[in-house]
């Protein structure tokens, strides 16, 4: 674990989130997104003590992002405003194959400044720090993240979330070395195998010795505590540094699949929230799977109506996971 002598003083339940807040531009409509911001909004809705560290522009899209901070009751202590760079924007083009995402360069989240970020982090003193890779594509924000990692005693949760053309293997390599727990999907896991283990066991059978051996190599190579592999409708599996494997195939499929946008972010949010609350690992995975499945039943990564969260919170508080969500 990458901790230091200040770890005992950290607010164990607080979660800091570093990365992009942006707008997905469908031309006909603009939807606030960004994997870190999706996750941070869920955490806020759950009632977690959370801090979102990001940067927006002085523009209409920035106002939309700020409105989401307000809607979710989130602190803006980690929100920076850039006087020249625009708020992050991804152009989404619909085609016969589905969607094509054009991630714009030189956006406000590429310029997250260290001094205000460090001040916000120090005040929050979180027990967990979440980060990804997209906000590391530019030297400015990458340097700020390094400063935060160096200054914080928090455990580090890396959601790899690789976007083609935006992330280098070197960035992935360095991020893995700085993480304690890493979350990947099946495609990302295969990329890690290609780069770092030179074998490619399939993920169809999570009990296979070949898969466990390869994941064990990754854990040892990067001194990780845990590796989470999300399996879509098949659930998720957690490999730990001691060779333990926790599998949860418990998935609550939505009545109607709308889209899978933000499912991984929803999973991460419940996983981090559950670990902060002290839930058992198997229960945490099952609840994260169920909530991610529910997000697939709505349009977009977060609900338009915050009442969406109430049955989930009530069920978790009651421990009534066998009950269907109303």
Topology record:
Blueprint: E1 11-18, E2 22-25, E3 30-33, H1 35-46, E4 50-57, H2 60-71, E5 79-82, E6 88-95, E7 98-103, H3 114-124, E8 126-131, H4 139-151, E9 155-159, H5 169-178, E10 181-185, H6 186-196, H7 209-221, E11 226-230, E12 236-240, E13 245-248, H8 263-277, H9 281-295, H10 310-318
Parallel strand pairs: 1-4, 1-8, 2-6, 4-5, 8-9, 9-10, 10-11
Antiparallel strand pairs: 2-3, 6-7, 11-12, 12-13
Helix pairs in contact: 1-8, 3-4, 8-9
Family: Belongs to the carbohydrate kinase PfkB family.
GO molecular function, one term: kinase activity
Organism: Rugamonas apoptosis
The CATH superfamily is identified as Ribokinase
CATH architecture: 3-Layer(aba) Sandwich
Give the overall form: globular
Q: Estimate nothing, just give the exact number of structural domains.
A: 1
Helix and strand sequence: EEEHEHEEEHEHEHEHHEEEHHH
Helical content stands at: 25-40%
CATH fold annotation: UDP-N-acetylmuramoyl-L-alanine:D-glutamate ligase
The end-to-end distance, rounded to whole angstroms, is 40 Å
The number of E-state strands comes to: 13
Let me know the largest β-sheet: 9 strands, mixed
CATH class value: Alpha Beta
Give Rg in angstroms: 19 Å
């Amino acid at each position: 674990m990458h901790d230091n002598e200040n770890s005992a003083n950290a607010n164990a339940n607080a979660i800091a989130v570093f990365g992009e807040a942006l707008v997905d531009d469908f031309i006909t409509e603009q939807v606030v997104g960004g994997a870190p911001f999706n996750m941070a909004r869920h955490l806020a809705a759950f009632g977690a003590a959370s801090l979102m560290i990001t940067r927006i522009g002085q523009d209409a899209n920035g106002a939309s992002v700020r409105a989401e901070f307000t809607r979710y009751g989130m602190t803006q202590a980690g929100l920076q405003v850039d006087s020249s760079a625009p708020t992050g924007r991804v152009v989404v083009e619909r085609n016969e194959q589905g969607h094509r995402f054009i991630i714009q360069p030189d956006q406000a989240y590429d310029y997250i400044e260290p001094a205000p970020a460090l001040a916000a982090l120090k005040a929050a003193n979180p027990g967990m720090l979440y980060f990804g890779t997209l906000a590391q594509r530019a030297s400015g924000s990458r340097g700020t993240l390094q400063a935060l990692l160096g200054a914080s005693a928090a455990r580090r949760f890396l959601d790899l979330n690789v976007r083609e053309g935006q992330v280098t293997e070197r960035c992935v390599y360095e991020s893995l070395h700085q993480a304690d727990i890493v979350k990947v999907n099946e495609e990302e896991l295969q990329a890690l195998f290609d780069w770092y283990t030179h074998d490619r066991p399939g993920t169809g059978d999570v009990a296979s010795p070949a898969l466990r051996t390869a994941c064990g190599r990754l854990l040892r190579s990067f001194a990780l505590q845990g590796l989470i592999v999300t399996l879509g409708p098949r659930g998720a599996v957690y490999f730990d540094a001691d060779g333990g494997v926790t599998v949860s195939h418990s998935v609550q499929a939505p009545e109607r699949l709308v889209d899978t946008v933000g499912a991984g972010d929803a999973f991460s949010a419940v996983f981090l929230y559950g670990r902060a609350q002290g839930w058992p690992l198997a229960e945490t995975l099952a609840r994260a799977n169920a909530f991610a499945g529910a997000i697939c039943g709505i349009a977009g990564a977060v609900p338009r109506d915050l009442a969406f969260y109430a049955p989930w919170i009530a069920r978790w508080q009651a421990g009534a996971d066998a009950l269907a969500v109303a």
